[in-house]
Design goal:
The complex is a heterodimer of chains A (73) and B (213).
Chain A: E1 2-4, E2 7-9, H1 11-43, E3 44-45, H2 49-72
Antiparallel strand pairs in A: 1-2
Chain B: H1 14-22, E1 32-34, E2 40-41, E3 50-55, H2 62-77, H3 82-85, H4 89-116, E4 118-122, E5 125-132, E6 136-143, E7 147-153, H5 156-162, E8 164-171, E9 186-192, H6 194-212
Antiparallel strand pairs in B: 1-3, 3-4, 4-5, 5-6, 7-8, 8-9
Helix pairs in contact in B: 2-4
Classes of the chains: A mainly alpha (73), B alpha+beta (213).
Chain lengths: 73, 213
């Protein structure tokens, strides 16, 4: 454990920050996926397209909740 | 009364009639769907009928499914690594949450790319929809009348065993696909029942030539 500018830097702290950044990146990518699914559904309208969109929205909601929990933890 | 201005509804080709009778090839999650219900594509005309909707054979997904299954068990064993052993319980939990979120994202993304990367054969046209990753799509459309040649190839044990292969459609156009691995703009890769696909396209070509005369 190192002390820099009165802050104790540990491996847990570094890994924790990196994990939080990763979580935010996954959230952003899931937002891109959500948009892409809407575009894919526009190109080909399949009978299960609506259900798939609902599923992706649910995944995004879950990920948003997890990101908030992880970032605040 | 003779019908002068009839509805001019296109007749089904023999192969499609036989496949419909068999009752197979109806699931929308299948790799080869004959006349799918409630399915439309972007530039479809009102009198255009989708004859086949196809995608890569399900077996081609085994690679990412196996990777995901393996990755699922990784957090159960990573406590053995000294680097991860040093982390406190809170960080270790966060790391597991990130891992499983990324894994779920990977699975959904691969499924979507498989599900929406389709080829469509209608009574008038061939449509090849390719999505590369999440940010790029490539859609090729050609008239049946412009198709010059259609053939298929099967390579390897898996493709022979599960009956899938690449269908290559040569058109009058010299346009190439953005996917450099494809031999033509209309290369349907790893499609299920390539023999049936070739047969149906050939019959549609014949029908198209007859209607022109």
């Amino acid at each position: 454990m190192e002390t820099i500018l009165n802050t104790q830097i540990s491996i847990s702290l570094i890994v924790g920050i990196m994990a939080k950044i990763l979580m935010v990146m996954i959230l952003v990518m899931s937002l891109v996926m959500l948009r892409q699914t809407t575009l894919m559904d526009k190109v080909i309208k399949l009978p299960v397209g609506g259900s798939i969109k609902t599923f992706i929205w649910s995944f995004f909601g879950l990920l948003l909740l997890l990101t908030v929990i992880v970032v605040l933890a | 009364m003779p019908e002068i201005f009839g509805t001019n509804k296109p007749e089904k080709i023999d192969e499609i009639r036989q496949l419909e009778k068999s009752g197979k090839y109806k699931s929308i999650f299948g790799s080869f769907v004959v006349e799918p219900n409630r399915t439309r594509f972007e530039s479809q005309d009102d009198d255009e009928i989708i004859v086949i909707l196809g995608r890569r054979h399900f077996v081609t997904n085994l690679k990412w499914i196996a990777t995901a299954c393996l990755a699922f068990f990784v957090p159960m064993f990573w406590g053995e690594f000294p680097m991860i052993k040093m982390l406190d319980a809170n960080t270790s939990f966060i790391l597991s949450v990130v891992w499983y979120s990324a894994l779920l994202f990977y699975v959904i993304q691969n499924f979507l790319l498989w599900f929406y990367n389709v080829y469509i054969v209608t009574n008038e046209r061939l449509v090849d929809v390719d999505f590369f990753g999440l940010l790029y799509k490539n859609i090729n459309v050609t008239q049946i009348g412009r198709v010059e040649d259609v053939n298929y190839s099967q390579r390897g044990i898996f493709s022979s065993f599960f009956n899938y292969g690449d269908v290559v459609v040569q058109t009058a156009s010299e346009q190439r696909s953005d996917d450099k691995s494809e031999k033509s703009a209309f290369a349907f890769q790893s499609v299920a029942d390539p023999d049936l696909v070739v047969k149906i396209i050939s019959e549609l070509m014949e029908e198209n030539q007859l209607s022109r005369r």
